[in-house]
Amino acid sequence: MIESPRKFEGFGSINIFDLIRVLEIDTLGYKGFGEVFTANKDLLIDYATRTAIVIPVKDEELLTLEGVISAIPHVSLVIVVSASSREPVDRYADEVDLVRSIHRNTRRGIIILHQQDPVWGEALKGTSLEKMISGGKVRSGKGEGMILGILTAAAFGYKYVGFIDSDNYVPGSAYEYAMIYYSGFLMSESKYAMIRIKWPYKGKLASSDIYLRKRGRVSSITESILNYALSLYRKYETDIIKTANSGEHALTIDLALKMKWSGGFAVEPYELVNLIEMCYLGLEDGDCPIISDKIKIYQIESRNPHIHAERGDEHIADMLNFSLGTIYHSKLGLDQVKERIRKALEEYGIRDEPPRPRIYDLSDLEPTKVLEKIISISSDVHYFEPK
Ligand code: GDP
């Protein structure tokens, strides 16, 4: 049960809805009298059946990955996109064994693939994703992994794709995210929808005392600068963006294939920056060249906190640099905005310009052809069919 969406702000063809909260994780016994959004179980199953959940993983603890997979409702296809090391220890082989044993027990549908499998490099040669290849293989980076997940979901005919990080220590959170995705798509009734999750609190397990923050450090800076940039452009102040760095988000495949993507840790904020650039800035309402319909972006706050791996200050500075680079080098990067970005980065000891995002276009790809090629020749892609 979710609050009914009431307020949204329109930016050209994009409607960004203000944050709404999960009110009840389960509506068991609900009689239907509240002013809320609920969905019956059959409808949720229908949406879950058409959703693939992509789990990007890079050298995470196997038990954590297992917990996240166990949280994904049975009818959704799970796509594990791994960038884990192959040597000196083959951690990918362990992940494949894990997935095989999960399938043996549950018979759920699950695919596992390796991002640096040279077969992907082969299959993407000559396509618009050729930029993603370096030395014959797909570059490492979370965004690049997510793109392979999108292509796989599209090739298998899924209508919706959701992402859930593998470094999530609470399977209950991952379960709630998946349920929010299904409900969000149902609620949106739109071909071009995106659901972004805001966690109520976030903590790192490695700390001796867990401190639950309401907002992550990178997200709060990226959000304040993105909101500032939008406010300057529109000349109406806004604080609508509350999920700039949300790794937990989902979108319709129709939208995923039309928009542009970025690599590495720039990926999440770039999704918003790209849509704003393509479908709002300098355009009349309804003139978005890639999508004629409205694009609806929902931001939904879960009940479970987000407890994930501790990575240290260097990782935070790196993420911030890539995140702010997406705004800095966009049409939103007016002088005042650039100045704020430079100041924010200086606090993290970064004096250079943030990096320009690497931009990937999926629009001319034929996912089915790409996947057919990959599955037929790769010995590293494992597809376990649902039974
Ligand atoms: P944070 O949680 O946002 O601080 O970022 P993380 O470094 O924890 O990464 C988020 C998720 O992406 C985790 O599940 C990682 O295992 C995964 N990940 C990070 N880098 C890569 C990559 O290059 N490729 C893939 N496939 N996954 C990655």
- Give me the number of helical elements: 12
Distance between the termini: 30 Å
Tell me the Rg in angstroms: 20 Å
Fraction of helical residues: 25-40%
The portion of residues forming beta strands comes to 15-25%
Q: Superfamily at the CATH H level? A: Spore Coat Polysaccharide Biosynthesis Protein SpsA, Chain A
Spans of at least 5 consecutive residues whose pLDDT stays below 50 are none
Can you offer a commentary on this structure?
This protein has helices spanning 41-49, 62-71, 91-106, 118-124, 142-155, 171-188, 217-234, 253-258, 267-279, 313-328, 335-346, 367-377; strands at residues 2-3, 8-11, 14-17, 20-21, 36-37, 51-57, 77-82, 110-114, 133-134, 137-138, 160-163, 193-198, 202-204, 249-252, 260-262, 295-301, 306-308, 359-361, 382-384. With 387 residues, it is an alpha/beta fold. The protein has a single domain (2-384), classed as Spore Coat Polysaccharide Biosynthesis Protein SpsA, Chain A. The strands form 5 sheets. Strands 2, 3, 4, 6, 7, 8, 11, 12, 14, 16 and 19 form an 11-stranded mixed sheet that branches. The protein has a two-stranded antiparallel ribbon with strand order 1-5. A two-stranded antiparallel sheet has the order 9-10. It starts with a strand and ends with a strand.
Short description:
With 387 residues, the protein is α/β, with parallel strands linked by helices. It has helices spanning 41-49, 62-71, 91-106, 118-124, 142-155, 171-188, 217-234, 253-258, 267-279, 313-328, 335-346, 367-377, and strands at 2-3, 8-11, 14-17, 20-21, 36-37, 51-57, 77-82, 110-114, 133-134, 137-138, 160-163, 193-198, 202-204, 249-252, 260-262, 295-301, 306-308, 359-361, 382-384.
